[in-house]
Amino acid sequence: MGLSDSADTRLSQEGAATVAADDPAMAADDRSGVLVAPLQTIMNWARGHSMWPMTFGTACCAIEMMTVGSPRYDTDRFGIFFRNSPRQADCMIVAGTISLKMAPRMKLLYEQMAEPKYVIAMGACAISGGPFMHGYNVVNGVDQIMPVDIYIPGCPPRPEALINGLLTLMKRNAAGELSAAQRYRLETEGHL
Amino acid sequence: MAAPDPAHTQSSPSATAYKAGSGILTALGNLVGEVDTLGPGGMYCAQVAPEALLGAATTLRDSYGFRHLSLLTAIDHADAQGGLDLLYSFVRKTDGVEVALRLTLAKDPLVAPSMAPAWPAANPLEREVFDLFGVRFENHPFLRRLVLRDDFKGHPLRKGFEMSPDGVPAAASQAAISDHGLVGPAGNDDVPGFPFMAEAGGGDPLMHSERIVLNVGPQHPSTHGVLHLYVLLDGEKVIGAQPTQGYLHRCIEKLAESRTYKAVIPLMDRCDYVSSFHTELAYVLALEELLGVESTPKADFIRVLMSELVRITSHHTWYTAAGLDTGALTPFLYAFIDRELILDFFEEVTGGRMMFNYFRPGGVKDDIPPESAEKLRKMLAKFGESVDGYEDMLTGNEVFRVRTRGIGMLSCEEIEAYSVTGPMARGSGYDIDLRRDAPYAAYGRIPVNVCLGTAGDTFDRYRVRVSEMRESARIALAALDGMPEGPHIADGLPKSIKPPAGAAYRKVESPRGELGVLVMSDGTAKPWRVKVRSPALSNLHAAPCMLNDCQMGDIIPVVGSVDVVMGEIDR
Asked: What is the pTM of this model?
């Protein structure tokens, strides 16, 4: 089924031209609306414009994480959709304190995510244990367990801060930067 | 301990209720020993011997009508013998009188009689004391750690428990991810297996069905935080359920012991993070009772205003979840528009959206800016229309009604047996509300209408909470209009707080029910013990009653109607 002279064709022609205008590595074929670029460039472009975080809210921060999906903050406009299953998610927002009892479950969910995967440590507890860091049951930062891409300080961070964190991650992806997990793997294997 | 200071008792709302308790405890005769007060101006408390505990408790319940077990906790002596006090408090519904029993365990090994067989509400509370203090309760049906991992070493709320100064070392955290920390019952008499697990396997012979155990949570999109349920299913029918918890145990009670009194308030915020003001308020009220100070009249009204507004935001969060649990996303979008407007007001007054650190002994931190009050008044005047909108989305919604009516039934007998409080109790027509029964802050000066259901199903619990949103908006408006002029915090309070030795236990009506805070002082600048009585913990452990004979798909809406906040349950 080829592209005919329909509204669809015009849309794809305009779409391809818009995308290509943003990136010198891409070129748009004017007649068919086909985008010509190296595969990696197109993948980076897609990853930079769509981010599906998994809901992993354990405590107070989870309420603020819910709030970013609400009408005032509305993350849908950035291509950010919350997913409930780790298998559909690109990134894991660790929103809240991780106790020693929760830690194995968190690691299990992280391992169920498909590559490339990213981790956002939202709030003081996920970064360092926060107000509970001296306790006997609190993991002092999720980066002791898995590689973290973005740290968002606050107790809890404002919804704007979480949006900023997600956008920062998306910008990095668009620029083709390595995820923390990839960097960690390359480092441990001696490639970096 | 010292007799109540007459100047203080005059205006303390609990003073008359406390006084009546003294006579009742004395009337128990030789079941109890010496009767004194918990602290200056505090509740009456009778010493009881281990062998007389069950007799005294059941006499209080059956002969004197004290059917509500409010508090069950322990306080470490930190003496050479390693003894501790167990503290129980009981409330009579008819007049709100509260009495306490104190059971002293002089030395190791710590063994006490269990109340759980006679009083189901004691079951999770005794497990918590076993977990955190190491007290063994004889004849307890299921004495297993409640919040910590089975492989945890020691009992952290004992004063002798050694904490690493920098918290959990990285190596220990990394070691913890290798397994779930569960210890099996086989070959180890210390860890009993879950009671109904033995029934798994055999199903209905006519249906050729098989019983299976389903794990719900702790990370599940609709479990309301990190709740974990073991559910025993026969086909799609639920025949048993056991909540487990502790995935958000953040050591709040232990950390409070190493901070000054004022530095505990931010920790209290993070206990019940959906309605932070209530935990703050209960703590500050207990501290004021210990110190013998009173807040200013204006601060009383500000406290009522804030408590009611935060109740609305908490019910917003619950209403959102109630919609999502039954497959409706739209309620979330509308509820969070209004929730943001209230959070804006909190931010203008306290500086925080969720974590306020706002109440102080003697009053509140800052006054309310007049322009914020004006904005809030306009918002509250129109709030009824918003609630009409919420009701349009769910109350008459056929799907919602079919999935909630007649499902998750809770009877008044179960409410008393499990110490259920708050909207869950009121949904079954059980008429309790601390704002009316034992008024604190300015509640005595503002009439409170208690919203009641009749059926005791998930739908009536929904209706109670929606009516409470309207009622809270009305009370908040009344508090705003009736707010007297004057200072927002009392003068002449010392910078460093050192209450006299003693204990105080004060309760507030949180969106989940009776939230109490016990503060015990040894006369130094840091509290000896801070205990939060979690309403959601007691409510959650009544969930198995509600889930029996439900279908699998009803599990989430029924558990959602408990309105759990794990931060407060696990602490």
From this structure: 0.88
